[in-house]
Amino acid sequence: MFSPQVIGKQLKADPMSRIGMTTVVFRDRFKAESAEPLKLDEVPVYYKERFGISNVELWSQHFESKDKSYLNGIKKSLRKTKCNLINIQADTKNDLSDPDQTKREKALSEMTDWIDTAAYLGSKMVRASAMKKSYKDSLSSLKYLNTYCKKKGLVFLVENHFDLYSIPSNHTKIFNDLSDENVGLLADFGNYKKDVDRYVALKQIASHTKLVSAKTSNFDEKYDHISYDFGRCVRIMESEGYRGVYSIEQWGAKKDYDYERIVNWMIDEIKENI
């Protein structure tokens, strides 16, 4: 079974082996009107050549299709660049925790479709969509989906996604309730409400975490991060024994940042704190 912790230990000598990046960072470049268009089959070579990043994370919203011919282009690019597809951040239109069975079943169908896509592309992991309604119904859905993931050889991730699992006690509880080594938590540095102490929350979930969404938010004019102490978040994960990948992500109020500059800053911060 894929183990981020083991891989982290084996490749400890190379800090870049523990750094990945999601396409969320360059989300505006996937829009049709973008002045600098970017497509998924171009991501591996761009990440590798521009940033030295070989761990690629894809956001479901950036897929143009799930046809095999389209997916084969992404597979070819990953193979050619020797990049690892570490995760697909899968979003569904319907809520996996919806008490309405019909809507929940639609969400399950959407999610299993993404699991199939992740497996076809050779992803190591897949992240469940946000769940905002019923803990009980989310647990039922997640049990089913984890079983499906195991059949496909995928690690199944549950994220704090400004949903039920941005409540730290719920995030820990779901891990314990699912009680399966195939399940891991995805720890997102940014996805907490103002009344939650993110540093305490991260410490609580670190030992159950199999992937970190190393998210930043807002930067000042000097490109210093001002939303929270990013380096402290990394140090907390490290102090609690996390040795997996930190996947770079950014989501803030402004849209006119130099995102390559932000990525460079984040790479340096992660290197400095692991």
Brief overview:
The protein has nine helices and eight strands. It has helices at 4-10, 43-51, 68-81, 101-121, 135-152, 168-178, 198-205, 230-239, 259-273, and strands spanning 19-22, 55-59, 84-89, 125-127, 155-159, 183-188, 209-216, 246-250. Strands 1-2-3-4-5-6-7-8 form an eight-stranded parallel barrel, surrounded by six helices.
Structure notes:
This protein has 274 residues and is α/β, with parallel strands linked by helices. The protein is 41% helix and 15% strand. It is built from nine helices and eight strands. It has helices at residues 4-10, 43-51, 68-81, 101-121, 135-152, 168-178, 198-205, 230-239, 259-273; strands at residues 19-22, 55-59, 84-89, 125-127, 155-159, 183-188, 209-216, 246-250. The chain has an eight-stranded parallel β-barrel, surrounded by six helices. Helix 7 (198-205) links the parallel strand 6 (183-188) and strand 7. Helix 6 (168-178) packs parallel to helix 7 (198-205). The longest helix has 21 residues, at 101-121. It is globular. The model has no long low-confidence stretch (mean pLDDT 96).
